[in-house]
């Protein structure tokens, strides 16, 4: 009987070392050992320049764009000890997250009989890295220490590789916000944004080179910010102050109608709040907003949590552009807008957790396509103001259950010298949760269940006038 082959050696861990503006002097012993032992050192040019000559590994600067290059770099240096440099804490808006996601994708994509798969053979270098994270204090920790702000009570917004409008949803009177800057230009860009959106009185402090020998702080007020650009490595601290007359925007659904640019195609405030309650957004979930109109449903879905995602489908190009403007103005520039007619425009979209139909209900096949695309537990909500679409919703209520309600809102208006009620058109709303027994492969349904779109139904059929 031949002896069993020796167990394969475990792959070298992929080390990720956080480093601050204090450079080598600020690193603990474990981080120094990992850097000295590395055969390949990957990082930004600024980070690599902080290392002394005793770190003899080959120095490889990150290419741009970074994320698509990660799998290729790991494969190119497979079998060698790799150490990746990160700013501060690698797992806080850092390269650590990217590496964990890439390695997980590679592991999932490995065939069962490939090295690194379930067969127990030695992992392939590209998919078999074990990640070892050696963090450094983050810029947020340093900034809060300098400012005397509790970290847990401080809102943090990163503008590194992200639109500046992401900051807008964090602006509330009296709030403390830390902004992770994209560069030396960020303070001036943020000051302009604050002035434009009614937060000109906000106190701004720029904290540069935190933890390093060249640490400094500059201060001013957004309304008259005129400081020249400083160091590119900076964090911006905001003590938010709303200017008199600036509208107060709530964190919950039901923003004032005046918060939106629209041509009348808008789900009105009270119906919108009820609609979002039925859609029930949760962190990380994806919404399809069909017949977007002004985009109000998708915008307020995204405002529910920063990890929520949404796709707004609107056939009118002018309205589609307007949806994008509303999303940026209200702090959710990540809203994806698809210009086209549903159901054809739904083809290829990622599987939704919830679907709202606010326009085009009578388009042939639309309701079937949306229901088929939902996974078990997915929610579908549809609103209408017309009898024709109401009949469709009543039939779906008989078929799938759920709730069928009529929402009627009246507003007090002057009647001569008195006050009376003016009623808006009532809205019929059907909402349902897809049961497990009714579920099928949503990934294929979203691309195959949508029949060709037909001309005809107007998005106006479902919106309040």
UniProtKB/TrEMBL annotation:
Extent of Low complexity compositional bias: 435-459
Gene Ontology molecular functions: protein methyltransferase activity
GO biological process: cobalamin biosynthetic process; methylation
Signal peptide positions (record): none
Keyword S-adenosyl-L-methionine: yes
Top-level division of the source organism's lineage: Bacteria
Pathway: Cofactor biosynthesis; adenosylcobalamin biosynthesis
Domain Tetrapyrrole methylase residues, every copy: 14-223
Region of interest called Disordered, as start-end residue ranges on this chain: 107-126, 432-465
Pfam families, A to Z: TP_methylase (PF00590)
Keyword line: Cobalamin biosynthesis, Methyltransferase, S-adenosyl-L-methionine, Transferase
SUPFAM superfamilies: S-adenosyl-L-methionine-dependent methyltransferases (SSF53335), Tetrapyrrole methylase (SSF53790)
PANTHER family noted in UniProt: COBALT-PRECORRIN-6B C(15)-METHYLTRANSFERASE (DECARBOXYLATING) (PTHR43182), COBALT-PRECORRIN-7 C(5)-METHYLTRANSFERASE (PTHR43182:SF1)
Protein name: Precorrin-6Y C5,15-methyltransferase (Decarboxylating) subunit CbiT
